[in-house]
Write a structure and sequence with these properties.
Blueprint: H1 3-14, E1 18-19, E2 21-23, H2 28-31, E3 36-38, H3 40-48, E4 54-56, H4 61-70, E5 76-78, H5 94-107, E6 112-117, H6 122-130, E7 134-136, H7 141-149, E8 154-158, H8 161-170, E9 178-180, E10 196-198, H9 211-220, E11 225-228, H10 234-239, E12 242-243, H11 246-254, E13 261-265, H12 268-277, E14 284-287, H13 301-312, E15 321-322, H14 326-343
Parallel strand pairs: 1-4, 2-3, 4-5, 6-7, 6-8, 8-10, 9-10, 11-12, 11-13, 13-14
Antiparallel strand pairs: 5-15
């Protein structure tokens, strides 16, 4: 049997003891055999409804940590390739967040609330939980910011400056109300008018998209709709027709009319899979740029098979197990719960 056949046979043998969630940016051979496919937030929530003993998470490390934070007491989260990380998530440490937060509070006349993008490590989510803040996603960032700003509070937003800025611009905040923090000096500049303070982090993949690409694709495909992820820079976001989360892009394009034309500014593996799924619908789907996330590509069928074999043999390598300290997990869950309360008005499922 080849690798895929062995995976299918082993999954049948293990039954409902194992579930396999996969992020949208995973290779097609991985998403084809996954139980759930979605963005990082959707996967964490979907996984939290499962009672499977093993959660074999196909994504990058901060996502698997999110699943571990929400997992039930009897569940184990496993990564086929624990080396898969996220450069943006690595752009801020707990110590930097703490020092910057204290500095902003000392310079601002407003109460400052920390808001962390879902694409961050568990300790950073815990930091927000410790200080009454919240997690946000690219789909609900506006609701989270509006919640705090409507109360006259300011927001320290990290790690992605572009999601923060694009969200603030979409809310029609003035440029004086948006302050980029110098992450080397860890100072806010003392701007008393600022309402949103942005950490200078970014996604390297989404910085490969630009306005010139949008102009070129419109010349090549007249009438095409350009849709981008809000992790792109502000000029690119403004130049596009639509912007939204990976899940948003997926749903909008899938539900669009027969024969529609789309240029998509996000990770290429996802764009290619979406084009494949829509091939029978007469749609034109092209990438703004062929930008591949190497970390997302680290999960292979061979590694997935090896992890399944370890589960079958009850001999799981420690390095594959994703663990989050109990205190960190509890504080991170507070920030996740705050997001749910603000954005969706409902509780998380009861977990450990």
């Amino acid at each position: 049997m080849d690798t895929m056949q062995r995976i299918i046979a082993l999954r049948k043998e293990l039954g409902d003891r194992v579930i396999i969630p996969a992020h949208h940016y995973q290779k097609k051979e991985i998403t084809d055999i996954a139980d759930f496919v979605g963005d990082s937030y959707r996967l964490a929530v979907d996984v939290s409804t499962s009672d499977a003993e093993y959660i074999l998470f196909c994504g990058v490390h901060f996502m698997a940590e999110g699943a571990e934070v929400l997992a039930k007491a009897h569940q184990k989260v496993i990564m086929p390739n624990p080396v898969a990380g996220c450069p943006m998530a690595d752009m801020i440490t707990y110590e930097q967040a703490e020092q910057t937060f204290v500095n902003i509070r000392s310079k601002s006349q407003r109460e400052i609330i920390p808001v962390v993008y879902m694409n961050a490590h568990a300790r950073l989510k815990a930091f927000c939980g410790q200080h009454g803040g919240a997690v946000c996603t690219s789909s609900n960032a506006r609701k989270i910011l509006e919640h705090y700003l409507s109360q006259g509070k300011g927001v320290f937003f990290f790690p992605d400056q572009h999601l923060g800025r694009n969200t603030a611009v979409g809310m029609r905040l003035s440029q004086d109300a948006i302050q980029l923090i110098d992450k080397e000096l860890l100072v806010s500049g003392g701007n008393q008018q600022a309402k949103v303070f942005l950490w200078d982090g970014f996604c390297p993949i989404h910085q490969e998209f630009n306005v010139q690409q949008i102009e070129a694709v419109r010349r090549k495909y007249p009438g095409i709709t350009v849709i981008v992820h809000p992790e792109v820079n502000s000029a690119t976001a403004q130049g596009a027709d639509l912007q939204g989360s990976t899940e948003y892009i997926y749903n909008v394009v899938r539900k669009s009319p027969f024969g529609s034309k789309w240029a998509i500014g996000t990770e290429y593996s996802f764009v290619a899979r979406l084009a494949f799924e829509c091939a029978s619908q007469g749609k034109t789907i092209v990438p703004l740029e062929t930008s591949i996330c190497t970390d997302m590509s680290m999960t292979t069928p061979e590694l997935l098979l090896a992890a399944l074999e370890q589960i079958r043999d009850c001999n799981i390598e420690e390095k594959l197990l994703v663990t989050v300290d109990r205190t960190v997990r509890e504080d991170a869950k507070k920030a996740l719960q705050q997001m749910i309360d603000i954005a969706e008005g409902g509780p998380l499922h009861e977990h450990r």
